[in-house]
Amino acid sequence: MVGLRAIITAGMPGSGKEEFLLSIKPLGLPFVRMGDAVRHHKATQGSKLSTGEYAQKEREIHGDDIWAIRTLELLGDGVTVIDGCRSDAEVAAFKRELGDGLKVFAIHSDPETRYRRLVSRAREDAPLDRDDFNVRDGREMSWGLAKVIALADVMIVNDRGLEDFHRLCLEAVKEVIDR
User: Fold this and answer.
1) Comparing 86 with 92, which gets the higher pLDDT?
2) What is the pTM of this model?
3) What CA–CA distance (Å, rounded) separates 63 from 73?
4) Tell me, what's the pLDDT at 125?
5) Between the CA of residue 139 and those of 46, 50, 126, 133, 142, what are the distances in Å?
6) Does 1 reside within a domain?
7) Residue 75: which of 8, 170, 169 has the closest Cα?
8) In sequence order, what DSSP letters do the residues of the chain get, joined into one string?
9) How many domains does the chain have?
10) Model pLDDT, residue 1
11) In a domain, 89, yes or no
């Protein structure tokens, strides 16, 4: 049996994936953000598209698993946390490479909470309004993110205070690593 090689996080934008990473920092696990891979690749190409539009264009050209394939190239030895998986095609690509050495963690928060979080963090891809938020959610869902969340190995609901959420995340990851 292959040992654990990667923990993938999946969740709708604003669900708490970044807080998940902060919560498990004491474990010293390296991590790779799939969104950073998209933003970096977009910058090297000089694209004027939004990050989401660019990610979609690359999927149309190279296949739905392109971001997983590009992320796999960044894995080192030991367990790596891969943040931001968006599709069942990406999970399939990770499973082809990692087999049983992969665990998928889904982070869930309600839409209203996610909207407030996205607006408050004011990144370049923050929604301009509710319609923009709904379009982004629709795009993410069209990639198969809902299926990834539904079929995850571990589901963590981020509906309590930050301290509780951090504790839940740390406990869940420790349990998976210790198996």
Assistant:
1) 92
2) 0.85
3) 16
4) 77
5) 22, 13, 14, 10, 5
6) no
7) 8
8) -PPP-EEEEE--TTSSHHHHHHHTGGGT--EEEHHHHHHHHHHHHT--S-HHHHHHHHHHHH-TTHHHHHHHTT--SS-EEEEEE--HHHHHHHHHHHGGGEEEEEEE--HHHHHHHHHHH--TT--SSHHHHHHHHHHHHHTTHHHHHHT-SEEEE--S-HHHHHHHHHHHHHHHHH-
9) 1
10) 37
11) yes
User: Tell me: the pLDDT tens digits for 128-179?
Assistant: 899 999 998 998 888 889 999 999 999 999 988 999 999 999 999 999 998 8
- Rounded distance, CA 1 to CA 11, Å? 28
> Model confidence at 2, in pLDDT bands (50, 70, 90)?
low
State the number of CA atoms in the 13 A half-sphere of 145 facing the CB.
Answer: 20
Is 51 contained in some domain? yes
Rounded to the nearest 5°, which phi and psi values hold at 127? -65, 145
**Which residue has tokens 């946390």?**
81
Percent of the chain with pLDDT over 90: 67
Q: Assign residue 99 the CATH number of its domain.
A: 3.40.50.300
Is 106:154 a contact under the CB 8 Å cutoff? yes
- Domain span at 23: 6-178
Closest CA relative to residue 85, chosen from 76, 96, 72: 72
